[in-house]
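User: Is it possible to get a 3D structure for a protein together with its bound compound? The compound here is nicotinamide-adenine-dinucleotide. I've pasted both below.
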Amino acid sequence: MRIQHLIDGQAVESSTYFETVNPATQAVLAEVADGGAAEVNAAVAAAKAAFPAWAGRPATERAALMRKLGELITKHVPEIARTETQDTGQTISQTGKQLVPRAADNFHYFAEMCTRVDGHTYPTPTHLNYTLFAPVGVCALISPWNVPFMTATWKVAPCLAFGNTAVLKMSELSPLSAARLGELALEAGIPKGVLNIVHGTGKATGEPLVSHPDVRAISFTGSTATGDRIVRSAGLKKFSMELGGKSPFVIFADADLSRALDAAVFMIFSNNGERCTAGSRILVQRSIYQDFAQKFAERAKRISVGDPLAESTIIGPMISQAHLAKVRSYIELGPKEGATLLCGGLDRPSYAPALPAGMEKGNFVWPTVFADVDNRMKIAQEEIFGPVACLIPFDDEADAIRIANDIAYGLSSYVWTENIGKAHRVAAAVEAGMCFVNSQNVRDLRQPFGGTKASGTGREGGTWSYEVFLEPKNVAVSL
Ligand code: NAD
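Assistant: Yes, that's possible. Here is the predicted structure of the complex:
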């Protein structure tokens, strides 16, 4: 199979192609067009040409097309989920039941929202001020390889619904599901040039895209290092930067420990641990630490690792051999830094079943739990982005807040306690864009999603998406 760029409604061939492989088997899934500055320039030109007519259409018409695309995604959930699972190793239970259906929701939600954009008025005795919101123009939308279909639609839906046009660049490690999105967008009747997709590497395709003078806004999801590079090279543009994380999951002794245990297991091991909001630093109050650590490791040992297309699998393969090597390097580092390995490790543990036939060369790693972790260790400070949990003891509320904030990142956070005052105090004190109290990460499309510190700038979701996809203008009328 060959995947082409989508430029001005046409499938555009490339002089070179790269392969995308199934991380469970290493089998080649497709050859993908390998773009560069020429394809980026053509895609931006198409998006620029399509912008005036698209922005000028009534919001109700754009909304109808967004809904149609949402319906087409819903119709094709099993097919898209299978493609996504084969391309990324994310399990079918996640892609089929959560991630692809949520992608359809993104279109339905922003279809509604774009018809509700209103302004503000600031009357004074001498002037009537009011604000208008206009689309920005051509937007560069850049997605990472984890949950790529959901992330791409989380950007494409508000971008297009609000009247902008887009050039979407997927990660070179997971391009397949977005290629299908491009086809479905045309089928839905979205005019040519409104959504363009250019495939390729960050260097050859991403760099010319973000630095293109006709690109007015960048919505980027990816690593902190790349986000930093883009901000430096892109020049004056609107930005939304959704970057890495190393989120604290704080469990006080007075928490509902059974629910906290379930949520802690879910937040580090679901999505293969390749989740930006993973609760990867699990801070546990010292009086319950030993008991919790033992129960947590028992649960981790029972997690099924294997074929991502099997409904019962919880952890599939890591996205690439390079990423597997990175995750393994942290598993190797943990004991050297003084952490205690409770389960998992570099090789398949004796309690874990063998991998399915044909998947022996897959990028698999077993759920790994480190206890006695000091927050200053590298395994606690750096984003591993795999199924590796660090259990860190703390003494009291002040100690928990100190450890939670002793990190470069600030994406998500989780607090578990039955003491309502303490829950609110810690939620307010923790340096993060999001805090979930007695809950795992539950997304509401209206909430501001994003992080602080090294986890990014800007927020998306609900009216927060105005920040990147709409330009406010104040009009002052003399009375
Ligand atoms: P990455 O930064 O390596 O790549 C992300 C995207 O940027 C890819 O499409 C890549 O090709 C492109 N890119 C690379 N260099 C570029 C450049 N110089 N200019 C323009 N584009 C460039 O990230 P990744 O490894 O694909 O994804 C994992 C990271 O994403 C993790 O750090 C994770 O925490 C983060 N992430 C964050 C969120 C969030 O919402 N905050 C969500 C998912 C993932």
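The chain has a mean pLDDT of 97. The longest strand covers residues 127-135.
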